[in-house]
Every structure is written in C-alpha cells, then in structure tokens.
Amino acid sequence: MDLIITTASQLWEGFRFTIGIFFFTMIFSIPLGLLAAKGRMSKNIIVSSLVRAYISIMRGTPLMLQLLLVFFGPYYIFGIKTGDIEIGPFKFRFIAAVIGFSINYAAYFAEIFRGGIQSMPKGQYEAAQVLGFTKAQTYFRIILPQVIKRVLPAATNETITLVKDTSLAQVLAITELFTKASEQASKQVSVMPFLAAGLFYYLMNALIEYISNHAEKKMSYYS
C-alpha cells in the first residue's frame, strides 16, 4: 500500500507539469492558429507565403527537434544565457516547452481552421453585408461560431494528440508524467508505473472526449 501511495503521488507530481504544458499550449496555440489561418488566406502574397512556409516547416519537422531549437537556440544563436530566466514560478525549461508546443500545434490548428472557414458558403458573407454587418462582426458573430461547430471533431483529435505529445517535454529535462513513470519503473523494476501513467493519460483524454461530445450535442441546433 505504501508503494502504491508513493507511486501515485510521484506520478501526480509529474502529471501537474503535463496539465500545465497542455493548458498553456491550448491557450496560446488556438488564437495563434486562427491568426495563421487568416494569414494563410490573405490576398497579400508575401503574408500568405510566409505563413505557408511557417506551417510547412512546423508540420514537416519533428516536434522534438523544435523543442530543442527553442530551448538551445537563444544561447547558440544569440549567446543569451537562459538558465536564470524565469516568469513567475516557471523556469525557462517549462517556458521553452510551452513555446515549442504552441507554435507547433498552432500550425495544425491553422489548417483545421482554414478548412472550416473556406467551407463556409459565400452567401453567408453576402447576407451579412446586406444586413449591415461589418467585416469584423461578420467574422466573429456569424462565421466563427459556425466554423467552431464544423472543426470541433478535428480540433478534438489534435487536442487528444497534444495530451500524449506532452511526454516529449522530457527532452528538456522536465519531470512530466512520463518521466516520473520511467523513474518509478526503474526504481521498482516493474511495469506498473507505466500502466498507471497510461491510466492518467487515458482518463484525461476521456474527459476531453466527453467535453467535446457534449459541446457537439449543444451545437447540433437542427438535429
């Protein structure tokens, strides 16, 4: 029983970092993804080309590599010592992980949002113009709510993938859930900590799936 309690407490300590990375990544990646989607559809060839290149690079290179570049880049490129950088209770390792995850997932969300926005009939914009809506009002009050409804399943898939990808934060020596599970498995010479970590991941993803399904039902206005 003592071993079970110790293992659970250690895994919970790591799970807090996993939740933190997930939470902050969602906060930053979704708005950035919307912005990138708009940039991708921009009529300005320079803007659209730059955003297209950003999305291509983020989706075409390993997330682990991007995390390492964000963490080591400031020192190797600009000579900035990041060891003493802190924002509140967060050290640079955690900040670099959030930045890396955010810019990576923003690229995926951008393509999801772009698909949703471009799937909207042109008549929606024309009707809004006739009713006297401005472009901003049309986007935020008419288009965006419908886009969210359409892209929710795809966005949920990316969100679930993010939960599992947080284990890659171990490359920056962040003691998230998977790192703690590895430590406990090594100490106990047992596979049980890995199974327990899997349960933590599964329960978190089950909660996300439940929330998503509930939101889909709420948005099924005409079903």
Short description:
With 223 residues, this protein is an all-alpha fold.
Topology:
Elements: H1 2-40, H2 45-60, H3 63-78, E1 86-87, E2 90-91, H4 92-118, H5 122-130, H6 135-165, H7 177-188, H8 192-219
Antiparallel strand pairs: 1-2
Helix pairs in contact: 1-2, 1-4, 1-7, 1-8, 2-4, 3-4, 4-6, 5-6, 6-8, 7-8
What does this structure look like?
- The structure is a single chain.
- This protein is an all-alpha fold and 223 residues long.
- It has a single domain, classed as MetI-like (MetI-like fold), CATH 1.10.3720.10.
- A two-stranded antiparallel ribbon has the order 1-2.
- The longest helix is centred in the N-terminal third of the chain and has 39 residues.
- The N and C termini lie far apart (50 Å).
- The model has no long low-confidence stretch (mean pLDDT 90).
